[in-house]
Write a sequence for this structure.
């Protein structure tokens, strides 16, 4: 069966510090991978998606970036965090675009 | 563009009450429709789906029917339990063959359901 991991589960970082969140998928190959952000009390915002190694598409211009160094690894980064980067970050995968996505447990980021 | 509109929450019910959470969509063509559930502090879990008109998705006592004529996908459960307390998201997407940016999973804003004993 397939599983998706995210870490860390929670993170508290000061403004201006760097960020690295990691997502890995097990039990499948060549998945599409997605990063979403969920601000408090709001819906989900798609940040990045990737259909293959090194292929990243950005949905929203901001100070975040994503990378996919391996087939089943997806990383969300920032060089300098802003207060507005606080939120719940969710990684997801699917086998084929247009089908259901499977979500990880999420990372709660608080920027202070 | 594509959009999903859910009823505003929060929704508060007593155990064993009937649940309806309304969801309507705007899209060009015929999307696939989903309901996801998010329990406190967790990621989203797929609850049910329907891929074509008149399909009924069902899981764990929840049901939703894909109504093309009313562009709706309302979520229903006949008797809710305390353990159903969560945020529910309606979502749509298109298959790759639809082209353009329709690959995106478009979510509604979510409806918080609280079930009291």
């Amino acid at each position: 069966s397939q599983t998706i991991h995210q870490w860390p589960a929670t993170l508290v970082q000061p403004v201006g510090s760097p960020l690295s969140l990691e997502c890995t998928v097990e039990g499948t190959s060549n998945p599409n991978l997605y990063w979403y952000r969920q601000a408090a009390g709001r819906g989900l915002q798609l940040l990045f998606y990737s259909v293959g190694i090194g292929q990243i598409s950005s949905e929203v211009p901001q100070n975040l970036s994503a990378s996919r160094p391996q087939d089943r690894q997806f990383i969300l980064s920032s060089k300098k965090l802003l207060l507005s980067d606080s939120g719940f970050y969710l990684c997801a995968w699917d086998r084929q675009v247009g089908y259901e996505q499977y979500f990880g447990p999420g990372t709660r980021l608080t920027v202070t | 563009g594509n959009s999903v509109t859910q009823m505003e929450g929060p929704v508060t019910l007593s155990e064993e009450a009937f649940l309806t959470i309304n969801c309507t969509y705007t899209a060009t063509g015929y999307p696939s429709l989903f309901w996801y559930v998010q329990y406190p502090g967790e990621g989203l879990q797929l609850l049910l789906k329907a891929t074509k008109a008149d399909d009924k998705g069902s899981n764990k006592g929840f049901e939703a029917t894909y109504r093309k004529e009313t562009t709706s996908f309302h979520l229903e459960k006949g008797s809710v339990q305390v353990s159903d307390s969560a945020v529910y998201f309606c979502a749509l997407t298109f298959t790759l063959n639809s082209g353009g940016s329709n690959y995106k999973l478009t979510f509604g804003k979510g409806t918080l359901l609280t079930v009291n004993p």
Summary: The mean pLDDT of chain A is 91.
